[in-house]
Design brief:
single chain, alpha/beta, Molybdenum Cofactor Biosythetic Enzyme, Chain A, Molybdopterin biosynthesis moea protein, domain 2, Molybdopterin biosynthesis moeA protein, domain 3, 4 domains, five-stranded mixed beta sheet, 7 helices, 23 strands, elongated, magnesium
Amino acid sequence: MEEVIMNQPFCSPVQALRSVLDAAALLPSPSPETIPLEAACGRIAASDICARMDQPPFDRSPLDGYALHSADTAGASRENPVTLPVVMKLYAGDAPAAALPAGCAARIMTGAPLPEGADCVLMQELTDSGEETVQLYAAVKPLQNVVFRGEDVAAGAVIAPAGTVLSPAHLGVLAGQGYAEVTVCRPLTVGILSTGSELLEPGAPWAPGKIYDANGFQNAARLRQLGFAVERQQCSDDPEVITGKMQELLTCCDAVITSGGVSVGQKDYLPLVLEKLGAQLLVEGVAQKPGSPMLAATFNGKLVFCLSGNPFAAAATLEQYAIPALLRAAGRREESYLPARTVCTLTNGFSKPSKGNRYLRATACGGKVTLPGAGNAEAHSSGALSAMMGCNCLVEIPADSGPVEPGTEVEVLCFVQ
């Protein structure tokens, strides 16, 4: 089923995105909070997190063998081994008690610090593995087989710039720096409001003419996946009820996303509700399919997005506009709040011409992108929900395009992670 197009001029997708991002940039910055490092995966760094110390904090051995003065290994081979006394043994965690004298060797294990004076390590496989004395079967160059202090991370280096989403790798590096806590942005809470007298809460008995609320669950799950807290509600097509629910959510949440009630039907009340609330409109429709009736506004320093009730239309505009704006407001850096754009080769075609900008759900992998449902137009109707499963991107079809053939290179918007 095609969406009803409102009888008024729309802004372009580029203009719509710019409007909501600019509005997000003007909102108050999220407040910082300090949390245990173990709880910080997926959270956003509130400020630059820097290295407290060199990593590794000392020159160390990357292997089991012998720490040596390289000059003492000159000419060593299996035919003519060099024999040296072993004057110390070092394990990971040990601190050398003395410098290594010239003409001597130190038995050393992986991760142990080099004693002062040693400038190389010979792996034990190239020795006789002696304990009191050792025979060396190869010469070693200065600085060979040494992991140097600060080689991985130098003291003062920025590990995670402000706005970085902290990954398991970040947490590993920070743990290696001795961080037990980090300061991150407080997660924003987003209100999800599904409108429609036809809606039932999953678990309720089904009744003729009714449908279960899929949009609310899908939108809420997607936002939780990105680190937002969610307050989810639904209500009937009654402007007073909708207004009351919106006021309630705008009181306790940082932003609100609605679905349903934005087109030109007799019970499409969201434009009236926004006007009644005194919200400042940013976007009044976007020149695209699906999702053309989308509204975006600000109210008392909070973002409001009113999306179509058609499931894919709601999902597409959530990805294109609401998520980037919310992630910017949440404190993410630009490179991680915008959908990545790339060019892929279409493995199957799309049979329908596109008078306006069109976005198709798809799955991209290895430079190729595949449309669900063998590319037939029915699988891409705004009301089809199951075709979203497994999709990770939108294929952008420019306005005034004919049917798209397999093998065509197309622009792809990858969902933000």
